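Entry:
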Amino acid sequence: MRWSLTWPWRRKPKTIGLALSGGGARGTAHLGVLKVLEREGIRPDCVVGVSAGSIVGAGYCAGLSVVEMEEVALDLQWSKLGRIVRPRLGFFDSQRLESYMTELIGDLQFADLSIPFVAVAADILTGQLVVLKEGSVAWAVRASCALPGIFTPVERGDQLLVDGGTINNLPVSAVREMGADYIIAVDLLPPPQDRHPRPDNLFEMWSLSFYTLLRVTHAEGKEADCLITPAVGSYGIFEFSEMEEMLEKGVKAAEARIDQIKADLGL
């Protein structure tokens, strides 16, 4: 007779979800967080990204290493992200964003990704959150990153899609819907009580107004099992020259939480 023993105290491995917020150039801090998770052998089972978080999330889920994405990020310039157009619905043509992502990961479809991924955009006509999980990944990232007034919006049927952060900059609920039962969320916005640096130009003035409105999304971060908040609030979302510093801020923030994460996961 063959006996089968079941150990009641052996826990089923948790499905790990990762939520990556928007934040412009601050998105480099996401790479610092991923670097620490990778070093500790913690691999997300699903990822949701908004705006800058969608760029990092798409690259990671497409199989790019953190080192590869770091090299690309530190070489990033405005000219690679947008072409100036007549300012009707945006100063920069968002098509350049799609081309940039295609160069980075190829013309991948969501079904081709090695890790399930979702990009989040918003329909500016209805004020509804739009979850993008089918079709072209590069196109979805373009829509998720289309900052209103800066990048031209993206049309899909009767929808006019813009940066998902206008509705929810940290979509923890979307990660939960993907089946995650342990969620790590990375929030790149400064806490509501923090003071922003004084704006020096039109873009910084615009971004300050935009991210002041986005503070309402901080509540959803509380629904994460582990919330990581890199100290990047003093950097502007267009400060591409400071991305190396911001990456290190991501590393430090993740290292401050890694013991909690490992304990929660039983590692």
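The longest helix spans residues 243-255.
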